[in-house]
Structure formats: C-alpha cells, structure tokens
Write a structure and sequence with these properties.
The complex is a heterodimer of chains A (340) and B (312). Chain A has 340 residues and is mainly alpha-helical. Chain A is 66% helix and 0% strand. Chain A is built from 19 helices and no strands. The radius of gyration of chain A is 29 Å and the shape is elongated. The termini of chain A are far apart. Chain B has a two-stranded antiparallel ribbon with strand order 1-2. Chain B is mostly helical. Classes of the chains: A mainly alpha (340), B mainly alpha (312). Chain B: Its EC number is 2.5.1.60.
Chain lengths: 340, 312
C-alpha cells in the first residue's frame, strides 16, 4: 500500500473525493440524541456509507473497500460480511487475497462465527487446492487456543470436503503431547479413526489406539478424556471391553498408585456391570481407597459405589443412583438407604 | 450464602436498554434483538417486565422483519433464523404472537431445512445444530411444526450424537454443552427424547461441575455462568438434575454478581454483560431460587408464557 492510499483511508469518508456522490444513511435507533465518542464517530460514519451502498445494492470495488473498513471496526456485523460476498462474486475477485484478509483478522477474532463462515465460503469456492492452506490456517489458530471450537469445526469440514487426512492422527499426537488434557484433540482422534478413508475404521486401529490411550491415562490418571475415549473404542465391542486384560490391569495400576482413583473406579464399575469379575488383587485395591470407611460389601460393585460417594462428593447423587441400579436384588436392598 | 441482588440486576438491564451510544452497544448493534430477548426475559423472571414500554419494543421488533418473513438482528439487517427466534420469543413475552403473519414467518424458516434434515441459519448455508433447535423452537411456538420434515430433522440431530452421549454442531464434532442444549431442546420439543442415552449424557453433564461449584462446557475448560443454563436445562430435560450439587452451583452463580451496579459476569470478578445476566438468573430460576418466575428449560421462556401459548 503506497503512502497516498494511506492518507486517503485516514480521511473521513465525507472528505474523500471518490465518495462525494453518496449520502450516508444513519442508523435508526429511536429518538434519543447521541453524543458519540471519537472512535464511534468514525465507525458511525463508515456504517452510514455502508448502509447507503447496501441499500443501493452497489457491488463495486469502492464498496468492497468500505466493507473492509466496516469489518475492521466490527467483525461481528453479519450483514456487512454477506454484502461483501455479493460484491466478491460480482467482481469475480481473487479469493486467495480474501483468504489473506481473513487471516489478518483471525488472531483478534478467532471466536467470531461470521469470520469462520466467510472463510468456509471462500475455501469451498477454491476447492481441493485450498486443503493444505486451510489445515495450516487452523493449525495457527491452535497455537494460541488448541481447543477453539470454530477452528475444529472448520478443520473437520476441510478434511471431509477437501481432503488432507494423511497426517491428521500424527497431528493429534502432537497436540496431545503439548496438552494431554485437550479434549478436542481426543475427539479428533475418534473422528480420524472412524472417518479417515484409508485407516480401516475402529477394527483396524483399536489395538494401537488402546495402547496409546492406556499410556496417556497412566501419565495423568485424573484426565477425563482418555477414559471416555477408551469406552468409546469399545462401544460396539462389549466382549472385548470386558475380556481384555489390559483394561483391568490399567485399573489396578491406577488404584495402586497415588493418583486420583475416581475414573479408574468408575471404569471398573462399568466393566463389572457388563460381566467382568475382578480378581482378589483388584478387590483389595478397591477396599483400601478409603480404608477408614466401612465400605466393604460382599458385592464389590456396591463397595465401589460407596467409595465413589465419599471421594466424588459433588456427584454423590449420581453414585447413589448407580448403586441402586446395579442389579435388581441390590436395588431392593438399598432402597431404604437411598436419600434424595 | 450470598443473595440475589434482584433490584440491581433489573436496574442494570433497564440501563443497558436505554444506552445506545457507548462502544459496547454500538458493536452489538447487529444482534440487538438477541440482547432485547435476554434483557426482557430476565426482567420477566424478576417480575419487572412492566417496567418496559411494550409498544415501543414491539414496533421496533417488527421493524427488524425482512421481506422474506425472517427477522434481522436489528433494523436494516439481513434475516437469520437466530434473530427470528428472538423476535418470536419477545412477542411471546408480551402475548403478541398474533400480530405476526404466521404463514410468512413459518415459510421463511421452512425454506432453511436441508435435504439431510439439518437447518441452515440463512440463505448462505451455514449448518449447525444450533439452527435445528432455533428452527424447531420457533415453529413450535408458532404451532407450525408440521411445516418441516420433523423425522429428518430428528434423524440429523441424532447423527450428531457422540460416543460420550453428547452432541456437537455437526456429525463428529466435539460434544459441547451449548450444542447439547440445542439438540436436547429440539428433541424435547419434538417428543423424541427416547433417542437419548440419558444415563450416559447425564453423567457427562454432571461431570461439568468443577470444584468451585460452577459448570464448564467441555472437559478441562473453565466454568462459566452461561453453562448454568446450557448444562442445567439439559439435565432437567433428561430428568437427571439430581446428579449435580445444586447448592454449590447456586453459590457460584451468586458469586458472579456485581451486587453494587447490577449484572452478572461469566465468572467471579469479571465484567458483567446482559448475556451472562440472563443465563445466571435463568440458571437460578431452574434451581428454584426463591423470588424468580419459573422458566421452561426447552423453550427458554417463562413457564406461564409457555402455558399461555399451549394451554389456551
């Protein structure tokens, strides 16, 4: 941008010669007189001129520049973005420049629905050639906010519509190395193994994914995400869930360490309710979680519920409900103990 | 335990309604109709809806209607289903839905349903389960739900169910409490909650409660007052609200108040805004905090307003 242009864009619109034929249209906000502060005076002027070109349906280059200014003042105004798209189409504009424009705005507007929707519109028009740039774009957003919901939604759309699956699982590994608690990355793992056209689905990946998950759990047993992921891997394979010794061994390892046992206990509860029979080692490990309590019961799943009621007090009602619904006989027995 | 500064919150809302020249209002100008819905519903829950001039509000709401039948976020803005719902909800508060050309508004919404049952927000095609909820809620309030393909709409929502029992914005997207509210709300309104694994989802939802007593929207995220609505209303709709610690949540919401100037913020000591004020008060209403009108968890309108629409 040369210095003449710089000077021009700093002038109020009413003083710019190329806008002399336009009368701005004020916002109709009711009868209250307004005393605007300096910033909003410039903004109000830009919006006045925007309304004029919008009402006149002027899809010109100067109108495009005007939408740039309006968006820079307020990236949330969806009507401006939409009119900008009409102009871009009418002018048959270079959409690579448009990607550039969005990138400049992205860091300060990374949670703005309009920005992301516009980006998707542009990428869709560019097609598969845009795939790697779009993946790169979302990666850059994740550098500052690895859980940005809009960016993840865009990334999933890109993968499914423009391609680029090859390195996605490896990318999930990277993100989880940075932050093993990143639930979005765990979700993306599942997305990849179930939708990547070349991986073979859960059946083909379940063994390696289980090993990865178990390793992750042992690093941070208080991390909710991998425990849920583990359950998800076995959603359609209860048999494997109940009989795979790696899973019960995992629970035992966590219970005999100094780590928070809540998730290990709840997973065990799920295993037992699906037919798993814990050995004596596991039973011993469960009973010493809260040794001073009188938690022992002949039914180990009742014991687990009692322990969870104590150590996960926030959700005491949930664990009481689990206890009541373990088996019909138990339900009868604890009916009197269940407090609402 | 703290108390709800009801008077101050009502004053705060009324002040925000009148003030349109500060930079915050100017920047939110394009979604003003959402802001008015949040503000007025809060006032109604506080028993102070009569403090607002009904005529002025209604005539301004109608000025937001586009020739297509849909409503924009403010006068002169393009129509979108989000703002259309707010318009209908505001009219419902004043018992004035009948001033609408019901057919015109319904037709606008109906055209937004896609082949796969999902809904776009407007003609530009952004698809999100938020819009499924907004479309279904709008049409239900207008009693025009039969105008869309409900079966396909429900099928699409179910396709967004994840392995943790939650829902995302599109199939495969991460479960998020806001999206869950939208999906559960839509399923509740269409009578399709039997498709939900209530025990699994209920557990995921009650795990949103963190040590401070507040609720987050996804695992390992910070608590935010707005989740007092998204999570709580979802739990109520699937009849699992007993699974959270209600007392601790009430305490958290009350700690997010600015008791001097009014308003509620996302978490303690942050700046207040109308959005979080609404969700804080609505959350307290769902928790049966004394002195507040009951709010319907699916329609996000006071129960007496809903009864007026459906039981008359």
């Amino acid at each position: 941008m040369d210095s003449d242009e710089d000077e021009r864009t700093l002038l109020p619109l009413s003083q710019r010669p190329e806008w002399s034929d336009v009368t701005p249209v004020p916002q109709n906000d009711g009868p209250n007189p307004v005393v605007p502060i300096a910033y909003s005076e410039e903004f109000a002027e830009v919006m006045g001129y925007f309304r004029a070109v919008y009402l006149a349906d002027e899809r010109s280059l100067r109108a495009l520049h005007l939408t740039t200014e309006a968006i820079q003042f307020n990236a949330g105004n969806y009507t401006v973005w939409q009119f900008r798209r009409l102009i871009l189409e009418a002018l048959n504009a270079d959409l690579h420049e448009e990607l550039e424009f969005v990138e400049q705005l992205a860091s300060k507007n990374s949670k703005n629905y309009q920005l992301w929707h516009h980006r998707r519109w542009v990428a869709e028009k560019l097609g598969t050639e845009a795939a790697s740039r779009e993946l790169e774009f979302t990666k850059n957003i994740f550098v500052n906010d690895a859980k940005n919901y809009h960016a993840w939604s865009h990334r999933q759309w890109v993968l499914q519509n423009l391609g680029g699956w090859e390195d996605e699982l490896a990318y999930c590994n990277e993100l989880l190395e940075d932050d093993i608690f990143n639930n979005s990355a765990w979700n993306q793992r599942y997305f990849v193994i179930t939708r990547h056209p070349g991986l073979g689905g859960i059946e083909a990946t379940i063994d390696s994914e289980l090993d990865y998950t178990i390793k992750s759990i042992l690093i941070k047993p208080e991390n909710e995400s991998p425990w849920r992921y583990l359950r998800g891997l076995h959603k359609n394979n209860v048999q494997s869930f109940v009989t795979n010794p790696k899973i019960s061994t995992l629970c035992l390892n966590v219970l005999t360490s100094k780590a928070n046992p809540v998730f290990a206990l709840s997973l065990l509860l799920d295993l037992i309710s699906k037919g798993f029979e814990p050995n004596q080692d596991l039973k011993n490990a469960i009973e010493v979680v809260v040794p001073e309590s009188n938690s022992q019961d002949s039914d180990i799943s009742v014991t687990i519920c009692t322990v969870l009621e104590i150590i996960d007090q926030m959700r005491v009602n949930y664990w009481r409900w689990r206890k009541k619904n373990l088996h019909p006989q138990v339900a009868e027995g604890v009916a009197n103990l269940h407090i609402h | 335990m703290g108390e709800l500064a009801a008077e101050q919150h009502a004053k705060y809302i009324l002040k925000v309604e009148k003030k349109k020249d500060d930079i915050e209002s100017v920047l939110m100008e394009h979604l003003r109709i959402n802001g008015v819905y949040w503000g007025l519903t809060t006032l109604d829950m506080l028993g102070k809806l009569s403090a607002v001039d009904q005529e002025t509000v209604i005539s301004w709401v109608m000025s937001c209607q586009h020739e297509s039948g849909g409503f924009g976020g403010n006068e002169g803005h393009d129509p979108h289903v989000l703002y259309t719902l707010s318009a209908i909800q505001i009219l419902a508060l004043f018992n004035k839905i009948e001033i609408l050309d019901i057919e015109k508004v319904s037709n606008y919404i109906t055209t937004l349903q896609n082949e796969d049952g999902s809904f776009s927000g407007d003609k530009w095609g952004e698809t999100d389960t938020r819009f499924s909820y907004v479309a279904i809620c709008s049409l239900a309030l207008l009693k025009q739900l039969d105008k869309i393909n409900v079966e396909k709409a429900v099928k699409y929502i179910i396709s967004c169910k994840n392995l943790d029992g939650g829902f995302g914005c599109t199939p495969g997207a991460e479960s998020h409490a806001g999206q869950i509210f939208c999906c559960i709300g839509a399923l509740a309104i269409t009578g399709c909650l039997h498709y939900v694994d209530k025990d699994l989802l209920g557990w995921w939802l009650c795990e949103r409660q963190v040590k401070s007593g507040g609720l987050n929207g996804r695992p390992e995220k910070l608590p935010d007052v707005c989740y007092s609505w998204w999570v709580l209303s979802s739990l109520i709709m699937i009849d699992r609200v007993r699974w959270i610690d209600k007392e601790k949540l009430v305490k958290f919401i009350l700690e997010c108040q600015d008791k001097e100037n009014g308003g509620i913020s996302d978490r303690p000591d942050d700046a207040v805004d109308v959005f979080h004020t609404y969700f804080g008060v609505a959350g307290l209403s769902l928790l049966e905090y004394p002195g507040l009108k009951a709010i319907d968890p699916a329609y996000a309108l006071p129960v007496d307003v809903i009864n007026r629409i459906f039981l008359n």
